[in-house]
Amino acid sequence: MKQHGLIIKSHGRRFIVESEGETYDCTTRGKRVDYACGDVVDILVQNREQAVIEGVQQRKSLLYRQDEWKTKLIAANVTRILFVIAAVPTPNEELLNRCLLAAEAYDIDPVILVNKVDLPETQALLDRLAPYAGLGYRIVPVSAKADIAAILPLLEGQTSVLVGQSGMGKSTLTNALLPHAQARVGDISEALDAGRHTTTNATLYHLDETSQLIDSPGLQAFGLSHLKAPDLLHYFPELRPLIGKCRFHNCIHMQEPGCAVKNAAEQGLIQPFRFDFLQRLTRELGNS
Ligand SMILES: Nc1nc2c(ncn2[C@@H]2O[C@H](COP(=O)(O)OP(=O)(O)OP(=O)(O)O)[C@@H](O)[C@H]2O)c(=O)[nH]1
Ligand SMILES: [Zn+2]
To answer: Is residue 115 helix, strand or coil?
Structure first.
């Protein structure tokens, strides 16, 4: 029997799918593994516990992670990205910028969660992030250990994902947000959960009827190779007004004369880090 389901857990080649009140351990056809937590899939039920994924419904969004070797899927159909950053360990601004760009490319409203506000070093980080608030990004200070109330309204009616560098407090935040949801997914058998710490790519938890939270492991880089260099200005809020202002319509803002973006950078109208980031990304996408 064919039916729709929601992937709530991905473990390499296996997926846990929720469908019509039941949970199935699913394999895929052939060698196909390009499914992600949050995907709505077509499944063929085989018995009470097993099914096969036959295809995937069109996605509203798809986030990728990238390591030295390859790109993998993080989560699908996410509507809210919560980027977790903290003063300790040293935050990676490149990762933040890649996350913001991935969000912009899908019109997802990203929120920068500044965790560990109890640490004295946090003020310096908030000062460093001020330019991002200037670009319109919401910055929400929290403490996973003391007070997470500011996060709750951000989750309502959304499929949210917490992402960030290892050590920023994602697991602590997730545990604080999930006391109820943990119990709800408790009916997935222990066997399916075995190896969770080594192989689970992501898990989706139901917070309430309309809100989900996807938990994914710490990541080094967002995969952005699906983007096209000529589209990049659309994803930088501060550069959008310059679209169409360069002398050459196909300007990629590297060496071209009459480049409005380069002129703006020279006049200090763009944060140097953001301009460098645009150029780095243009080179990266050009080579891919
Ligand atoms: N002071 C302080 N420490 C925190 C806070 N939240 C988390 N931590 C600590 O930060 C460290 C890392 O937290 P985790 O939740 O394991 O971080 P993570 O981002 O999930 O890291 P990975 O599991 O490696 O991806 C732990 O020692 C936590 O106790 C906080 O609000 N304040
Ligand atoms: Zn240009």
So the answer is: strand
Indicate the pairing of strand 109-115 with strand 22-28. Answer: unpaired
Nearest to 33 by CA among 1, 2, 7: 7
Residue range 164-181: average pLDDT?
Answer: 82
* ipTM of the prediction greater than 0.90, yes or no: yes
Relative to the alpha carbon of 246, which ligand is closest? Answer: 2
pLDDT in tens, 144-160: 999 899 999 999 999 99
Ordered structural domains, the chain, with CATH: 2-56 (2.40.50.140), 67-222 (3.40.50.300), 227-287 (1.10.40.50)
Ligand 1 atom 8 nearest Cα: 169
Whole-Å CA distances, 248 to 51, 254, 266, 280, 283? 53, 12, 18, 20, 18
Q: Who contacts 131 (Cβ-Cβ below 8 Å, separation ≥6)? A: 271
Specify the pLDDT at position 68.
67
Return the ligand 1 atom nearest residue 173 CA. Answer: 15
Angle at 149 between CA 143 and CA 150, to 5 degrees: 80
119 lines ligand 1 (CB under 6 A): yes
Please, which residues have CB within 8 angstroms of residue 249's CB and are 6 or more apart in sequence? none
Nearest to 93 by CA among 134, 135, 44, 129: 129
